[in-house]
């Protein structure tokens, strides 16, 4: 620290030069006193806490003071040789012109302990000296009063954080004395206009403490709330809803998962699984046990947009769906849109899974770890700059390779089954209005069970987001994201046909998204995005001296862009309307060769009449169209509302698979010259009712969905390494409808939820050509048509430390195509099959139980632990994973296989520090 003076003067109008280097304000003021004949009067705790590094050359004392305090809440008043410093306020030696007239008019009045100006500008803000502020409510002084300021309202903005985890909390209600208020957005940010003078703000939350604070507004300013967890939340199981947002918002089919409390739910091998919990919710299912992918409201598995910090994750599973590739320790929020999808999202027909990683604690080092029978997980949060930035590191791995090699089974000695994933997120708060976050994620799977083939797939993604306030009413964010997914099979044998087979997809997106609170009645969301695809649909490469021919299907590239605008319009306190439009554009790009087929004829090798060649990045095909998003909510009585919605969507990327369940061997193709984009439209209606101060939620929702250009395959199709995929695929129409019921009890010793869905899903592929028809061109059940789906999740707390949990799941068996007979022709046996999906595999049901034991909840403990003892599939139900047929002794016999045909006990230990 140093201080130097080149010229010393004793008048604030005479110039001098001075430098400060890393001085605090108290030291700087004392040194200014030594240079002048002035005496400063102030309270030391009013001074800013920042350090001062300034260099002033040939300036006056007034210029020095103006510059020192311009970005602070400190004002100053000069009276002869005395300088008085004040916090927030101005010392007036005369009233502004017109002030006395304003006091006599109706335009200026006292509110609480302050004079509040409503119409006349330039009115000071006074606190009455003979009135004491209520000490039970903390008083916060905001802003710096300015002479001649003319604003009628001041803006207060900031964030709401969880005091223990330092994570932002969304959907927290912040209410003024007159009952008006706002709620925090998904980043925990709020922005509210308040009158000059005293304002009382109250926070009302079911999951966190309710508090009130007094704000004395002198100007625009920032304040962040830190809320303690409501003790009642200890009784919650997994689904959280802040206040009565399920009643108040306009979205149908929106679900939120409480990531922290899924630890109480018994899951296979003790691994917390956010996505498996999602399948317990009405309207969301999987094809079967141990399978990846989700079917949402009768849609295909590739019709779900899976986002991790705004980057697309193509395969969110390990071990074909036995484990999720999402780390529960680093996950902050999971929001699922299965009904009305907000206009900012696009590219998929059925749903959006918006998963965000939590921010690192910026105040102290934190960590969490778990140890199970098959996997371990560890996460740490590292402050980088105290109060501003931090780094979160998470990693998971399995030691199943070691287990396989330890078994006394020779056939498994060369087997491999392993996965790991890691995530890094950096978050930096520049100021209360600006925030930067960057996420990097990588996962790797490799498995080979009694086989010469080593299967492997990898997810890699990166995203960076900058969020800032552009004005008093508008916040904006810019997002850059890249996703990369690749799959390969390495076939290594003693023969000369060793090869590597695989595919690869990469996409990069930039997105600008803005939110504007135009008024108390209108909230706008608008933006623009563009995404570039680079797809290698398939390749085969020889290994070593193999005789396999090196072959690669032509790569596909495309540009998908969109622009959107949506308005949440509060028509009245009871009626909320959300209307939006998204217009999407898709341009398939070369280089490529496209077959031209004879009009009115089936697409096959015999009907090719020409080949069209497209140069690098030349436009091959263009598609575009409007996507409308409408939803409405009407509150009939307190705790009871009706909602309805309509939306239509486009999807330009497709999964090619002839498996019933999602498989890593599936490949991806883009819409193009022959392959049209899929389209869907959905209508939904729901009734939502809460009881017992919102601790019990009930809802019943119905939906009807139609789709066009749905992709499927011809009977006997060969999809692997096929350059002309249009000859093996079909595009038809689909329809789905259903009713979903949910009863959720969020507090009390016994809590949990019951969900039931009745739904149907059908497809239709009709053509004038027989080989392009399925089931004679009539509607038939889709592979994921399961009419009845029931789930029960319950948690009973014996004490605050000990609890029992249970899951019970029942689902109708999925459709399947059976052989119904055989015949002999020309000395060869042939099998006759039923119509596609005419039969069903046996119904699925499973019961899981667990006992949970927590350490004591003392806040002084350096670490808190949690034990989970679970039994998965208590009844030992042999739920079929697949059904297949073999011929023995001239007879066709059906066989079925299951992933878990016996009870599976497990134990896991979790520690948080």
From TrEMBL:
The keyword Transport applies. SUPFAM superfamilies: Carboxypeptidase regulatory domain-like, Porins. It is found in: Cell outer membrane. The keyword Transport applies. Belongs to the TonB-dependent receptor family. Pfam families: CarbopepD_reg_2, Plug. GO terms for cellular component: cell outer membrane. Residues 271-348 form the TonB-dependent receptor plug domain. It is a multi-pass membrane protein. Keywords: Cell outer membrane, Membrane, Receptor, Transmembrane, Transmembrane beta strand, Transport. This is Putative TonB-dependent outer membrane receptor protein.
């Amino acid at each position: 620290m140093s201080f130097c003076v080149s010229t010393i003067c004793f008048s604030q109008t005479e110039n001098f030069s001075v430098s400060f280097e890393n001085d605090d304000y108290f030291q700087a003021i004392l040194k200014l006193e030594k240079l002048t004949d002035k005496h400063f009067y102030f309270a030391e705790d009013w001074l800013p806490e920042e350090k001062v590094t300034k260099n002033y050359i040939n300036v006056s004392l007034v210029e020095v003071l103006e510059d020192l305090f311009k970005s602070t809440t400190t004002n100053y008043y000069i009276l002869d040789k005395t300088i008085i410093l004040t916090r927030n306020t101005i010392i007036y030696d005369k009233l502004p012109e017109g002030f006395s007239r304003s006091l006599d008019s109706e335009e200026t009045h006292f509110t609480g302990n302050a004079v509040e100006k409503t119409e006349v500008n330039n009115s000071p803000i006074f606190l009455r000296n003979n009135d004491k502020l209520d000490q039970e409510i903390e008083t916060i002084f905001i802003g710096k009063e300015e002479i001649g300021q003319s604003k009628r309202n001041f803006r207060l903005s900031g964030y709401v954080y969880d005091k223990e985890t330092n994570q932002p909390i969304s959907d927290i209600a912040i209410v003024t004395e007159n009952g008006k208020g706002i709620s925090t957005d998904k980043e925990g940010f709020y922005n509210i206009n308040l009158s000059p003078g005293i304002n009382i703000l109250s926070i009302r939350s079911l999951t966190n403490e309710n508090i009130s604070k007094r704000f004395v507004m002198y100007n625009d300013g920032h304040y962040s709330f830190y809320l303690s967890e409501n003790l009642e939340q200890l009784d919650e199981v997994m689904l959280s809803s802040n206040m009565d947002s399920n009643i108040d918002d306009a979205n149908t089919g929106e679900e939120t998962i409480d990531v922290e409390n899924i630890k109480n739910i018994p899951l296979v091998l003790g691994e917390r699984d956010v996505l498996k919990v999602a399948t317990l919710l009405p309207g969301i299912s999987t094809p079967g046990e141990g399978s990846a992918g989700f079917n949402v409201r009768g849609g295909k598995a590739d019709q779900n947009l899976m986002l991790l910090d705004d980057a697309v994750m193509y395969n969110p599973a390990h071990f074909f769906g036995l484990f999720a590739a999402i780390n529960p320790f680093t996950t902050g929020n999971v929001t699922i849109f299965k009904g009305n999808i907000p206009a900012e999202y696009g590219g998929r027909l059925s749903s959006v899974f918006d998963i965000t990683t939590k921010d690192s604690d910026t105040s102290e080092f934190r960590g969490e770890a778990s140890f199970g029978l098959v996997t371990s997980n560890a996460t740490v949060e590292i402050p980088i700059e105290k109060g501003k930035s931090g780094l979160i590191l998470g990693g998971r791995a399995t030691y199943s390779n070691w287990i396989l090699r330890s078994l006394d089974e020779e056939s498994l000695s060369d087997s491999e089954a392993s996965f790991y994933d890691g995530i890094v997120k950096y978050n930096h708060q520049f100021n209360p209005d600006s925030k930067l976050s960057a996420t990097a994620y990588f996962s790797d799977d490799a498995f080979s069970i009694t086989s010469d083939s080593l299967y492997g797939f990898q997810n890699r993604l990166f995203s960076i987001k900058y969020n800032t306030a552009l004005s008093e009413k508008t916040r904006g964010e810019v997002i850059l994201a890249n996703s990369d997914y690749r799959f390969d099979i390495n076939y290594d044998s003693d023969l000369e046909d060793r090869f590597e087979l695989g595919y690869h997809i990469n996409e990069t997106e930039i997105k600008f998204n803005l939110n504007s609170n135009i008024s108390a009645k209108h909230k706008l969301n608008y933006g623009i995005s563009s995404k570039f695809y680079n797809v290698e649909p398939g390749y085969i490469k020889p290994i070593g001296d193999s005789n396999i021919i090196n072959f690669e299907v032509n790569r596909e590239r495309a540009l998908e862009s969109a622009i959107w605008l949506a308005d949440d319009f509060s028509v009245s306190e009871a009626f909320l309307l959300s209307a939006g439009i998204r217009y999407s554009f898709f341009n398939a790009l070369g280089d490529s060769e496209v077959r031209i087929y004879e009009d009115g004829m089936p697409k096959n090798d015999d009907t090719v009449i020409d080949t069209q060649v497209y140069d690098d990045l030349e436009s091959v095909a263009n598609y575009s169209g409007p996507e409308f998003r409408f939803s409405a909510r009407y509150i009939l009585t307190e705790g009871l509302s009706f909602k309805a919605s309509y939306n239509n969507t486009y999807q330009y990327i497709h999964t090619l698979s002839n498996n019933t369940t999602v498989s890593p061997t599936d490949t991806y193709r883009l819409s193009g010259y022959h392959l049209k984009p899929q389209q869907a439209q959905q209508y939904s209606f729901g009734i939502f009712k809460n009881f017992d101060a919102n601790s019990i939620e009930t809802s019943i929702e119905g939906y009807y969905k139609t789709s066009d250009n749905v992709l499927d395959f011809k009977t006997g199709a060969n999809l692997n390494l096929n350059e002309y995929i249009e000859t093996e695929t079909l595009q038809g129409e689909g329809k789905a409808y259903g009713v979903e019921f949910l009863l959720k009890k969020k507090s009390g010793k016994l809590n949990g939820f019951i969900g039931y869905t009745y739904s149907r899903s059908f497809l239709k592929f009709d053509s004038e050509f027989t080989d392009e028809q399925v089931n004679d061109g009539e509607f038939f059940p889709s592979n994921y048509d399961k009419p009845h789906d029931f789930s029960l999740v319950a948690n009973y707390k014996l004490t605050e430390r000990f609890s029992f949990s249970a899951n019970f799941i029942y689902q109708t068996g999925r459709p399947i195509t059976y052989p119904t007979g055989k015949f002999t022709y020309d000395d060869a046996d042939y099998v006759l099959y039923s119509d596609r999906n005419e039969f069903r595999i046996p119904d699925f049901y499973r019961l899981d139980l667990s006992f949970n034991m927590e350490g004591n909840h003392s806040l002084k403990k350096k670490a808190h632990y949690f034990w989970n003892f679970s039994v998965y599939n208590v009844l030992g139900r042999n739920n079929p994973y697949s059904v297949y047929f073999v011929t023995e002794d001239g007879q066709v016999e059906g066989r079925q296989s299951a992933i878990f045909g016996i009870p599976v006990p497990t134990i896991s230990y979790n520690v948080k520090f």
